């Protein structure tokens, strides 16, 4: 039921985006407010964009996969994190190809070479944060609030950075969160069915 609701919300969001020009005005207003607010925020956003880039994110996912496999013997987590990230990129590529929305009109403060909708950085940030937080909570449940807080901060910072750099609209980021959220629902359900609450692999 939750998965069906997520798909419905995503579809409704895309329909609203395409059908109501008023959202374009909201995108422009929010984007103009955030765009290049000040030098230190631009610098921070560029660093966040670099950390969230494909090569760095994939390297981090592989390091985490090796760590969970070696230290926790959680081989499902070792598969979950990099596979989830790769799947997120695939979904993002498909959505960008189908919708082909142009980037915002203002000068981009970071190099981009694809269409705008949805944000690939935001999708990857949410996917990695949600999956990692879920795995950490299963292994270290006492620190649940810490993992959730860190994941939320990273996801919000990643979205903010795309607005500051002028490379995405607000609706690009919100759609990315929705699409990545649906993807993570599937992955977390798969992972939860194959591990115990302590993170140990179940016997097949």
TrEMBL record:
This is Phosphatase PAP2 family protein. Residues 78-188 form the Phosphatidic acid phosphatase type 2/haloperoxidase domain. Pfam families: PAP2. The keyword Membrane applies. CDD domains: PAP2_like_2. It comes from Chitinilyticum piscinae. The chain crosses the membrane at residues 48-68, 75-95, 115-133, 145-167, 173-191. Keywords: Membrane, Transmembrane, Transmembrane helix. Gene3D superfamilies: Phosphatidic acid phosphatase type 2/haloperoxidase (1.20.144.10). InterPro entries: PAP2/HPO (IPR000326), PAP2/HPO_sf (IPR036938).
């Amino acid at each position: 039921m939750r998965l069906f609701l997520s798909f419905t919300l995503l579809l409704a969001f895309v329909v609203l985006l395409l059908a109501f020009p008023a959202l374009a005005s909201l995108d422009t207003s929010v984007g103009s407010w955030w765009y290049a607010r000040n030098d230190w925020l631009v610098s921070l956003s560029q660093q966040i964009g670099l950390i969230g880039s494909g090569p760095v994110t994939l390297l981090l996912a592989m390091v985490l996969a090796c760590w969970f496999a070696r230290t926790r013997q959680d081989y499902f987590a070792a598969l979950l994190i990099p596979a989830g990230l790769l799947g997120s990129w695939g979904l993002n590529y498909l959505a960008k190809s189908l919708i082909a929305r142009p980037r915002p009109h203002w000068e981009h403060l970071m190099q981009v070479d694809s269409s705008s909708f949805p944000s690939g950085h935001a999708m990857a940030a949410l996917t990695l944060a949600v999956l990692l937080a879920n795995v950490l909570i299963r292994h270290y449940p006492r620190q649940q609030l810490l993992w959730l807080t860190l994941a939320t901060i990273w996801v919000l910072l990643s979205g903010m950075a795309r607005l500051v750099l002028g490379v995405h609209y607000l609706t690009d980021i919100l759609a990315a969160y929705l699409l990545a959220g649906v993807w993570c629902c599937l992955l977390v359900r798969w992972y939860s069915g194959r591990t115990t609450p302590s993170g140990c692999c179940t016997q097949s």
